[in-house]
Amino acid sequence: MKKYFLITILTFTVLFFTSCEEDLNITDPATLSLDQFITDAATAETALLNAYHDLQSTFVGGAYPKMFSGLYADNFDHTGSFPTFTEVWTNNILTSNVNMGSFYQNHFDIINTTTEVIRVTEGLGDASISAAEKAPVLAEAHALRAYAYFQLVKVFGGVPITELTVPLDGDAANNVPRSSEAEVYSYIESEIAAAAGSITNSSNLRFTNGAVQVLKAKVQLYQGNYAGAESTLQPLLGSYSLAPTYASLFDVGGDTTESIFRVDYTASDSNNLSFFFFPSSGGGRREVAPSAELLADFEDGDVRKELIANNTDFTSSYLIKYQDPGGGTDQPYVFRYADVVLMYAEVLARRDDAEASTYINMIRTRAGLADVVLTSSNVVDVIADERRFEFFGEGDRWDDIKRLGIAQSVIEGKVVGSYDVNRLLWPIPQEEIDTNDAISQTDQNPGY
Fold this sequence. Notes:
Layout: H1 9-15, H2 21-24, H3 34-37, H4 41-55, H5 63-72, E1 76-78, H6 83-89, H7 98-122, H8 131-156, H9 166-169, H10 181-195, H11 209-222, H12 226-233, E2 259-262, H13 273-277, E3 288-290, H14 292-297, E4 308-309, E5 318-319, E6 333-336, H15 337-349, H16 355-366, H17 379-391, H18 397-403, H19 407-412, H20 430-435
Antiparallel strand pairs: 1-3, 2-6, 4-5
Helix pairs in contact: 1-4, 4-7, 4-8, 7-8, 8-10, 10-11, 11-12, 12-15, 15-16, 15-17
């Protein structure tokens, strides 16, 4: 967990939206912690933006989660030289893996930032910030905190639930015991409830009320609450629409009606996505490449395969969903409408509603494919495949196959790696165990 936090206002306000420095009249904001900095509505909003700056980490919204999800499953192969990537590809992550430590830590950065925003903003009186100004700041902070915990619980299981931070609570914030997976999910649900309906922001580069609903539906789906997910998804139907072509979803600098929430990257904030996927001739290093299995498994005529360059030759193929290796300005999706459509198709199919086929075929029609019939008897296999080809390179594959109960067959079908039921969860980073007095080696996930 994060051991300290000093806000760097000058950095993130320049990089994210517009700078508020002149309005705030802060002499040296880089020296202030959030409890000193947040004094009114403007400073609360500016502090909230720092949580979005945390989201821009390559270990949160950028390259690493997307590469690791595909490597740990079957969408990507490790074609580079980084040994930490080989560990992920072979399903044998060591507790000392520094990339895994950064993934863990950087999500707790969001949790710590939003916790401070919530606690300090809640403590401001009416003379400093009105109730109407306070509510949306708190709602976005709760949504971001819920999202960070959701990303953690899916891969690590139970993690520490904390509303303590070093600036506000001293050393006690460093030592928080691990909560159970069920407790983390319960906490996420309470955070989503605190965020629901109170956000006034309409930019898809931040959480909106619609994005909160998508997060809620995904949390319900991952817990097997299909009826709850169906009710949550229904109001979103028609609120967005699919982009007319699949390729247009990934135009650099473009935007579509399908966007629900994207991560804002600029030339000053590289996401490293295309750098890791492109070959050296294109300005990258091709550390990770589409697997031969992925290339072979596309249906004939699937236009989504065109987002893989040289898509018939594994030795030279590479992902082109992200297209700016020099600047890293691609704005990857956190949520897009195709996910809503496929989640809705799945929950309908699980109760044999014939409309399930209508929704999955909306996605397949755009991909240039024939219709399928989706029922409760084939829902796992058909949804797993459709999500694989719709979202390859977007960070969903490992979560999907684990949730759908097909991780064993998928991993056993890889060129490398071996299935171990203990490896369905990734290891708690050894650094966390070593520095958190409330966690010991006995708290490590089994098998590590």
